[in-house]
Automatic annotation (TrEMBL):
Gene that encodes it: nfo
Family: Belongs to the AP endonuclease 2 family.
Stated name of the protein: Probable endonuclease 4
Residues bound to Zn(2+) 1: H67, H107, E142
Gene3D superfamilies linked to this entry: Divalent-metal-dependent TIM barrel enzymes
Length: 276
């Protein structure tokens, strides 16, 4: 079965989001651990988490994605910004110990002019502070489009972060079809070649999750503009190849396309029909 869902609001709690997911034919979903622009996370509600646990089992959910705040920049050139980022990273991971079957996904960060080597070092230091031998949560670095001074635009950068982390058994990557295409990985004309390269540099066993998006911008543009499935530069055929590729087809996919619930429902229905 295709494990697919989309980004959903958890303003009414995780259980409510799981019900929304079920109502649109999804068996996974993604949520922000806190306001995407940063700020305080909500109090932990164990009743909500227990109800989530039950319904995820009942409906055979694939792992769900907890996405870190966009403002969390572990590679910032400002000490206060880094300290805030380090604090929310630790807090997110602490909270996720309570939520079952969840992958933590975050944007590695932006070096803001310090150079990618320094940026990578700062990210590695933060992860080494946050992840100890007791960490059981799968933590995934998201591959980025490479806009501005973003780190994670290449497999080499992601690999350098993974290699620097002491307890990296549960550290992997989330690939985003839009970001891959924008950062110069031609998943439209050479998906096999891209996967081979990921395997050679990082190892496909580290790829645990996929963000499935079409793109509003051209190949190798280093821009990050998601489009609804089939309406963008990647196109429906390439997206169908991704969900059916033998090396990817069993992973959980979450859509982050510009849609309301109804639009997501249509995309999920369509992709389920195309799954072989
Ligand atoms: Zn993301």
């Amino acid at each position: 079965m295709l494990n697919i869902g989309c980004h959903l609001s958890v303003s009414k709690g995780l259980y409510s989001a799981a019900l929304d997911a079920i109502s649109i034919g999804a068996n996974t979903f993604q949520f922000f651990t806190r306001n995407p622009r940063g700020g305080k996370a909500k109090e932990i509600d164990m009743e909500d988490i227990n109800k989530l646990k039950q319904i995820m089992e009942e409906y055979k959910f694939a792992p769900i994605f907890a996405h870190g705040a966009y403002t969390m920049n572990l590679a910032s050139n400002k000490k206060e910004t880094r300290e805030f980022a380090n604090m929310i990273l630790k807090d997110d991971l602490e909270r996720l110990k309570l939520i079952p079957n969840t992958y933590y996904i975050f944007h590695p960060g932006s070096h803001v002019g310090q150079g990618s080597e320094t940026g990578i070092e700062l990210i590695v230091n933060a992860l080494n502070e946050a992840i100890d031998e007791n960490n059981n949560t799968i933590v995934l670095l998201e591959g980025m489009s490479g806009k501005g001074t973003e780190i994670g635009r290449s497999m080499e950068e992601l690999k350098a972060i993974i290699d620097g982390v002491n307890y990296n058994e549960n550290l992997g990557i989330c690939i985003d079809s839009c970001h891959l295409y924008s950062s110069g990985y031609d998943i439209v004309n050479d998906l096999d070649g891209v996967l081979e390269e990921i395997d050679k540099i990082i190892g496909l066993d580290r790829v645990k999750a996929v963000h499935l998006n079409d793109s509003k911008v051209e190949f190798n543009s280093n821009k990050d503009r998601h489009e609804v499935i089939g309406k963008g530069t990647i196109g429906l055929e390439a997206i169908i190849n991704i969900i059916n590729h033998p090396l990817l087809k069993n992973l959980p996919f979450n859509l982050e396309t510009p849609n309301e619930l109804d639009g997501y429902k249509k995309e999920i229905e369509m992709l389920r029909k195309e799954y072989r």
